[in-house]
Amino acid sequence: MNKVLVLGAGQLARMMDLAATPLNLETKAFDVRIDKVVHPLANEHTYGDLAQGIANCDVITAEFEHISHDVLAECDASNKLFPSSEAIKIGGDRRLEKALLESCQVANAKHKIIETRHDFDAAIEYLQLPIIFKSALEGYDGKGQWRLKEMSQADAIWADMQAFVEGAKTSVPQGIVAEQMVPFEREVSIVGARSRNGEIAVYPITENHHTNGVLSVSLAMPVSEKLQKQAFEVFEKLTRKLDYVGVLAIEFFQVGEQLLVNEIAPRVHNSGHWTQQGCDTCQFENHMRAITGMPLGNTQLIRPTAMVNILGEDKVDDAVLAIPGVAMHWYNKEKRAGRKMGHINVCGNTEQELADKLSRLATLLDPQAFEDLADFADMLQNRVNPK
Ligand code: AMP
């Protein structure tokens, strides 16, 4: 079993391939935009269509959850798909995701599914303002969301959402989930792997910071055992219910000492990129190990690590590389405003050292392109060394 086909040909497939090669695995990627199997590092090399890709591999996996159900059905028929198409569909549809959380009795924000104006009005009454409305399908990085803060906005938001749902070109009907706004203290996630025989290995929970709705920095430092245990229990419940195989990410809102699930991603995740330098075995390698039936690797944090996303930039000052413990990961993508182009992992032997390196990094990077980084570094300095 050494040939893997990844559905999707973006940076996640690329990093899966980079981690899989030393394991003697051969990775190809199915680019859904051109309906062709490509090389995950050199997309100009093509290897036929999906049917050929399926026939020529031992295992199929996915780097994103918004995959057309026709493609999933074709993969399912081969019995090679891990995680299952059910898990992928749940990750791509907030209605199914909420149903899964409820069926596992996992804490999440109070919510209602909306189809009609009557549902909309009833949801407002049930949830109370402020409310966030999210598209059921194809919502990511804050896209397809409406925030209702006062009743005067209700008619306009309803009209906008209705037009959005009617105009959707999705393979299953688009819909809306209304969710109570949670007054969270911070956003965290847990990334972990479950193997074919049910073995589980999770990474320490990661603190996530967003800029304009997109993840900008993830921070992995030693965490409270109580929170880690809570996150682990959710991971265990959900993966057992789904008989999940591969890496799964779960995003949470932390309110006091409680974690509420925001969403799940049935794949390797941006908030787990720090594991490339912060752990013995990164999330990409563990995903490939899990789906191909190998034992899972160590997921312990070996040193405090942060990941800084590079958004909309295709170069940074080389001096960044002179900071010890800094690793660059470019995705070889064409520059576009706001696009995830790469990330920088920064490690320190201590939390103070990590904070110092982030402060130094912030002075080397364009403050417009990395607009919150200096503030983030200051925040971390204050946290590790309170005045
Ligand atoms: P999502 O696409 O669901 O991850 O939402 C994007 C961002 O919107 C999250 O990272 C949060 O910062 C914010 N958000 C989403 N849902 C809620 C909620 N129920 N309460 C407060 N903030 C939210």
Q: What hetero molecules are bound to the protein chains?
A: adenosine monophosphate
Question: Which structural class do you get from the secondary structure elements?
Answer: alpha+beta
Helix content: 25-40%
Distance between the termini: 56 Å
* SSE string, helices as H and strands as E: EHEEHEHHHEHEEHEEEEEHEEHHEEEHH
Q: Per the principal axes of the C-alpha atoms, what is the gross shape?
A: globular
Mean pLDDT: 96
- Rg measurement, Å: 21 Å
The percent range for strand residues is 25-35%
Low-confidence stretches: none
Main sheet record: 9 strands, antiparallel
SS element count, helices: 12
Q: How many extended strands?
A: 17
